[in-house]
Every structure is written in C-alpha cells, then in structure tokens.
Amino acid sequence: MDIGMIGMGRMGGSMAERIRKGGHRVVGYDRDPDTRTAAAARGLEVADSLEHLVEMLPKPRAVWVMVPSGNPTEATISALADVLDAGDVVVDGGNSNYKDTMRRAATLQTKGVRMIDAGVSGGIWGLAEGYCLMVGGDEDAIAAVDPVFRTLAPSPELGYARMGAVGSGHFVKMVHNGIEYGLMQAYAEGFELLKAKEQFGLDVAQISELWRHGSVVRSWLLDLTAAALSDDADLTGIEPWVEDSGEGRWAVEESVELAVPLPVISIALQARFRSRQEAAFGFKLLAAMRNQFGGHAVRRSD
C-alpha cells in the first residue's frame, strides 16, 4: 500500500525505510529541508510540503505522523485536518498523551478523517529488529493500515496488536514506558552497588555480560547495559543527567487519578529528577542505557 510519513528524522526515517523494504510505497515529508534531502538520497520519495504529500497519495490516504509529542504533533495534525478528505486515516506514531489523542481524534472525526494511535517501541534498533506496535482505533481504520503495521512488526504474527478504541494504544505505551523506568532504575542501582564495593575490585562489564546468559535478570535492557559498559566500564565523560520524555510523568499522574499505587515507577521518575542535582555512577548508566536503546543524547563532560 501507499503511505505518507511525516517526520523523517532518526525514528521516522528508519520506519520509512522498513516500510519501503517491505514492498510498500512511502512518500515522506519533513519541515527540515536537509532532512528531506537526506531521505531522498536514501531513495525515498519526498514531498516539499504537507499539501504536496497529500497530492502524491491515492485516496483514501493513510498518513503516519512521527514528530515529537505536544505542540509539534498538535500543529501537524491540525494542518492535516485542513488538507485531508473524508475517509483518510491519520496514524499518530509518537508518544502522545492518550487524552490529547482522544481529543484530536474527535476533531478529525467531524471531518470524516479517522485516527489511529500507535504506541511504538523499538528505538533505533527497530529498522533491523522490527517494532512492537500497540495500536488503538476503529477496527476498520486499523484494517486499512494493517499491511504496514505487519511490515513494521518483528514478524507478521508477532509484536503488533490492537489494544482497543482510539487512545488505548498511547495509554498502553505510557504504561510500557513507566515499566521501562522501573527496570532501568533497578539495573542502575544494582550496578552502582557493585561499583561501590571497592574491596572486591569487581568488573561491572564482566558481570553485565555474565548475567546476560541464563540469569533470572537477563533482558534486552541488560544486553544494552553490557554494550554500554563494554565501551567504557567507568562511563567516563557521560554526565549523570537523565531526561524524562513525559510518559513516566503521565503514568504517575494516571495512578493518582485511578488510585492505583505505582511506588517503583514513581520513585524511578523521582530519581531522574534527582539525577539533575547530583553526580553518581548509576545515573550515568541510566543515561548510557537511553543512548543505547533509543539513540537519546547524553551530556558529555569536558
């Protein structure tokens, strides 16, 4: 099928390439002309405006929005509402707040445009490994984009499922990222304790590699931890400054609204706030893990 991709940066660009390699036509657009030029150099069809992208796609159109949450997504979907036609489908593949997603979907529906929210996990490894897709929306709308979802997933049968009505995909992704916060914090604290036991002269890189094979705590995050520590076991030059991209905060806020206790996730979020106030090895490792799985920038010390 044909699909438009808005946002051709690191994540959107890799997704566009996987879709194209799966035999589908992708028309891409990014507001940055240099990013458009780079995408065209990789063999992707590129539009020079939203209007041009819409003109290049056959009806009914499917347009995937892969831009940062908040104002960029708000502005992009608002602009699409003015140029798309009834029967078209918009997929928000970013990490939007599910409440915003439901509001945007209701606005699009007044114009006959359907919306799908796709929570996407996989980071910079998704091009090679495939993405886990948590999808929300009407069954008919999802069916229209189903071939693309199955191409992006690790396999046609695994790593992709409809969660429920519109908004549910982003809600599930929010919880997914909250769990991620807790897992990462546990690894960071454990390795900080290992590092602090100077009496034994423990090799944390060796231990992370050891635990990857057969241990109860093995996981993909541990694989990435081992990769970060193998590069530099002391994480020299990385500042212990850990960002939070929003989903952890939303999960904690939701827990308050529903009176569901989330002590681990809440403390992991607070630890990220604390990382911006003091230096510690565990926070360096958190920053290194985010760089490993998502290509997120780290702060380098001089």
Properties at a glance:
302 residues; alpha/beta; eight-stranded mixed beta sheet; 13 helices; globular
Describe this structure as you would to a colleague.
By secondary structure, the chain is an alpha/beta fold. The chain has 13 helices and eight strands. The chain has an eight-stranded mixed β-sheet, with helices on both faces. The longest helix is centred in the middle third of the chain and has 29 residues. The relative contact order is 0.10.
List the helices and strands and how they pair.
Elements: E1 2-6, H1 10-21, E2 25-29, H2 33-41, E3 45-46, H3 50-56, E4 62-65, H4 71-83, E5 89-92, H5 98-109, E6 114-121, H6 126-129, E7 132-136, H7 139-152, E8 160-164, H8 168-196, H9 204-211, H10 220-231, H11 247-258, H12 263-275, H13 281-294
Parallel strand pairs: 1-2, 1-4, 2-3, 4-5, 5-6, 7-8
Antiparallel strand pairs: 6-7
Helix pairs in contact: 8-11, 8-12, 8-13, 9-10, 10-13
